[in-house]
Amino acid sequence: MLFQSAILFTLGAAAAAGGGGRSSTSSSSSSSSSGSSSSTDCSTWSRVASDLGTTFQGCGPAARGAIRAPFHDCINNGCDGSLILGDECGRSENAGLTATCALLAEKAKQYSVGTADMIQFAAAVAIAVCPLGPRVKALVGRTDSSTPAEEGQVPATKDPIDSILGKFAAVGMSANDVVALVGSHTAGTQSFDDPSQAGKALDSTPSKWDVKFYSETKAGTAPYSFSSDRRMTNDSSTEGSWNRFAHSQGAWASAFTSAWDRFVVVGNDVDSLNDCSSSLPGSSRRRAEGMSRPMGAGAFH
């Protein structure tokens, strides 16, 4: 969630919740007003990955903004690029994303690819280059839309946990998914939740994709914690998942990738998308490592 404001996703990662709601594989009712579909040529996306991989090295502010952007694009209208194309970046609920939106809009134009795909692909690159970051899928072929999403749908850090979970349940996310996605705060800082403490990290290792966010938020030792994160540590719907991830990098990595891969296709027909995951940084090395492991060996350690 890498959030930087009083809006849960404006600050950084995601939140989700159990229950029904719109499936992440369904077509969005308002995701195609512009009718623009992305290039699905993976060779093009390999060039994008090389470009952005350099920009995101070190898991700093540019990477954090890229990881945060999908939450703001997908949560309220499906993953359709309206965060940028519908001029949603200027909203208070998306505070702090202006530079990210400008960068990704520029890159989409430079490489002649879709904006919705650029938002999701850039985040996948950023996660991959952050130390210990897992490899999520990079599917392309979403349909862009310039129709703005309804304002006020992005969860805020002061919202009740049930409300946050409910908004993510509406896009097919369970409570366990929410807690896993919120873990992206491990690479987050805040600027707007409490301006007097702007720049404070959400755990002691903001440039590393580790589980200290969970343990330090629970213990009250993180440099800064959002109210929603603190309350998730002991809420009956989220405490179990929180404790499990705090003690296992592998458990979190597995849950995060599963939740992320489903969340970033909300409002799209997954079967129509092309898998360009092999274009992500480190893909060749990780494939080789996987082939060298005994059958059933864990992908994360």
From TrEMBL:
Gene3D superfamilies: 1.10.520.10, Peroxidase, domain 2. The active site is at H72 (proton acceptor). Residues 1-16 form the signal peptide. It is an enzyme of class 1 (oxidoreductase). Residues 23-39 have a biased composition (Low complexity). Residues 63-243 form the Plant heme peroxidase family profile domain. Its EC number is 1.11.1.-. Keywords: Calcium, Disulfide bond, Glycoprotein, Heme, Iron, Metal-binding, Oxidoreductase, Peroxidase, Signal. GO terms for biological process: cellular response to oxidative stress; hydrogen peroxide catabolic process; response to reactive oxygen species. Binds 1 heme b (iron(II)-protoporphyrin IX) group per subunit. Binds 2 calcium ions per subunit. Residues 16-42, 276-301 are annotated as: Disordered. Belongs to the peroxidase family. Ligninase subfamily. This is Peroxidase. The lineage of its organism: Eukaryota, Fungi, Dikarya, Ascomycota, Pezizomycotina.
